[in-house]
Amino acid sequence: MQENQVASTTGPSVGSSPDQSAQLPGVPETAGVPDLHPSLAPLAFLVGTWRGEGVGGYPGLDDFRYEQEITFVTTGRPALGYASTSWWADEPRDGRVAGSPLATETGFWRLQDDPEAAGSKVVEVMLAHPFGIAEIYVGALQGTKIELAHNVVIRTATARAVTRSVRLYGIIEGGDLAYAIDMEAEGKPLQPHLSARLRKVD
């Protein structure tokens, strides 16, 4: 997801207050979620397919619009499978037309007890990108808000010089999933890169 970037105009900004990323009361029931491992019950609200539109941008990269589909699946194991695909949704530019493929990422989301805070949970996310980057995120879960504030990036010699990212996900009004990603790359400081609002379609 590092190939695109944005001012956070459609989703919550990383580090935003709960008022900007509204939490729904309580955590959804796990009934009706087949093969969900008991440890993942607080993440049951993510399971399914989400689709919508986002905006991206970064210094040296003009702002753009994109469409995206994200899927979280259960496996019976203590991790959610994750896959994301995005495609161009803006005016033709730089050889891209509507529907041109953009970023793809796959990985797993896990939930662990926080050893430093009784009753709290730590979210661990492992992602792989086809352009030579793998990432690990660690963050906090509060209701239906997930803030992935800690990040480790592994790059191949030919990959883009991304050094850090942080992400914020949350269920907002209407039950949509919104997210924002800030990125530190190419010697530039951490700043907004991508944001989107997705509606559950399956």
What would you say this structure looks like, in words?
The protein is mostly beta strands and 202 residues long. The protein has one domain: Beta Barrel (Lipocalin), CATH 2.40.128. The protein is built from no helices and 10 strands. It has strands at 48-58, 61-73, 80-88, 101-113, 121-129, 133-142, 145-155, 162-171, 177-185, 191-200. A 10-stranded antiparallel beta barrel has the order 1-2-3-4-5-6-7-8-9-10. The radius of gyration is 16 Å and the shape is globular. The chain starts with 47 loop residues before the first strand and ends with a strand. Residues 1-29 have low confidence and may be disordered.
Sum this structure up briefly.
The protein is an all-beta fold.
Number of domains: 1
Q: What is the H-and-E element order?
A: EEEEEEEEEE
Structural classification: mainly beta
Share of β-strand residues: over 45%
User: What would you report as the Rg, rounded to the nearest angstrom?
Assistant: 16 Å
Q: Give helix % range.
A: under 10%
Uncertain spans, ≥5 residues at pLDDT below 50? 1-29
Give the termini distance in whole angstroms: 22 Å
* Spatial strand sequence of the major β-sheet: 1-2-3-4-5-6-7-8-9-10
List the main descriptive attributes of the protein structure presented here:
Lipocalin; globular; ten-stranded antiparallel β-barrel; 202 residues
